[in-house]
Amino acid sequence: MGDHHVSMPADILPHLTVDAVEKRFGGVVAVDNISLAIRRGEIRSIIGPNGAGKTSLLNTISGFYRPEKGSIRFEGHDITHARPSEIAERGIARTFQNIALFAGMTVLDNLMLGRHVHMRAGVLASFVYWGMAQREELAHRIRVEEILDFLELQDIRKQFTSALPYGMRKRVELGRALALEPKLMLLDEPMGGMNQGEKEDMARFVQDVNQKFGTTIVLIEHDMAVVMDISDSVTVLDRGRKIAEGTPDEVQRNPAVIEAYLGAGHQAGAAA
Amino acid sequence: MSEFDLQFTLLLVTSGLMIGMMYALIALGFVLVYKATDAINFAQGEFVMLAGLMAAVSIDTSLPFIVAVLIAIAGMIAFCFGLERVVLRQLLGRPIIAVVMATIGLAALIRGASTLSFGPGVRALPLPVSDDPLFLGPIMLPPVQMVGAGVSLVFLLGFTWFFLKTRMGVAMQAVASNQTVAMGMGINVQRYFALAWALTGIVSALGGVIWGAMLGVDNQLPLVGLKVFPVVILGGLDSVIGAVVGGLIIGVVEALAAGYFDPLVGGGTKDFVPYLLMIIVLMVRPYGLFGKRKIQRI
Q1: Is A96 within 8 Å of B181 when comparing Cβ atoms?
Q2: Would you say residue B244 lies in a domain?
Q3: B286 located within any domain
Q4: How many domains in chain B?
Q5: With an 8 Å Cβ cutoff, are A85 and B189 in contact?
Q6: CB-nearest partner of A102 from B168, B178, B186
Q7: What is the dihedral sign for C-alpha A26, A27, A32, A33?
Q8: CA distances from A75 to A12, A72, A87, A95, B289 (A)
Q9: Is residue B242 part of a domain?
Q10: Which of A84, A109, A119 sits opposite B183 (nearest CB)?
Q11: Which of A91, B93, B200, B264 is spaced 20 to 30 A from B61 at the CA atom?
Q12: Do A113 and B174 touch (CB under 8 A)?
């Protein structure tokens, strides 16, 4: 993936712009004056030791946290103070660090919920125009089946998510985010806690999504081998601040990055 | 067991199931709000009374019965919407005790205000059905119970279909399951809170009419709402099916206590046996028959 340039051509606006964003919790500055320019169609990894503010940054982008300072723009719209549901409607989907599937539902139902933002028939309309609602349902179902095929989840679509193995559940969560047909996906440790085989599968799916649908991807990941392999560019955070940014190669050689990892008692590649 | 004894037991159980179905209806209102918004509504009984009052006053002004029912439904939906918007939304994110206290205060307010406005007397809320008992095989049942149970059953079935099969119902399940993720999926969580309260309004309206028809409408009617607690503790606070099964069990237990224990001790066991059962359930299975076992991380 080294064929992309990290520097942005002047005539193309970034897909997502985070500008000098600050998020505080009491006296703790979780996100400290961070700016990002994510290019359309890139895979951007956000790395950093535990407590670096990676998830806080993702939560701020997706509207769960309200930043004290700074602004966030997506496709030219200011989404700094938009509600999470509005941000999802604009085309930003996300997954969560701890698997957050709806437990009492099947894989299919979970993915159908991902279609929620695209469902137009309101409750009254769906009672009055039963046929229309049914047709709409069918169209969504077809889309969901395509995603199930794409992620190789066909065999388990009628299973309850609580019964699935860990790696599968992570994949279902990716599928649910994908069902939104997002333009940008925020993935919070999509390979966290996976074994090597599961990680390789997930890395392949993330790349496939990026290439097949052109989805811009921002992911938090700890496994350096994966990060270096699939990312177009990498942003490194430490204690709420951005300490480095660049291509995987550039970042790996950056002394500040090595210092942050070793200083925090971590070894690059071994952090979990 | 003689044939008479058997018939007597059968009568108690059937009657208990009918009453239980009516408990289940009210319990559903309570469970819906708890599932969707985590709020414990101590004013559920008062909602029922308020709805009963709306219907009874409408009938007193010689409106047709069906219009009175529609007024109660529309009135309760508006009341619950308003309550959610004006009071409960402000308490979002506060400790759960804030909501509990608010609903207890609201309960006292509804009881007081309705007595003040409409007087303390009992108002009749006659259903447009004959008073002649109906025979179901060897069992004789008051029609008012049959209608109450029938209305409850139809609503519960309709609601189950809505909850499991429609996209709004499924989204509502998602909100109940995990609000954060539901938001991330583009679901407007506030809208589903409002929907849960609106459904509680409908449940309360139907409950107010059928319970008001059985017992008459006065400030004793909210006591029916207190039965919701043993029902939902038994069934599980967050379970729709639990509300139904819990309602049926409490109804039958109550009827059996009334039939077998009350004559021995001179009455009164019917009123506390459900709560006794509730305490036992809390000791052995605190999350109820169908409730989610919450895993607390320490």
Answers
A1: yes
A2: no
A3: no
A4: 1
A5: yes
A6: B178
A7: positive
A8: 11, 10, 11, 20, 50
A9: no
A10: A84
A11: B200
A12: yes
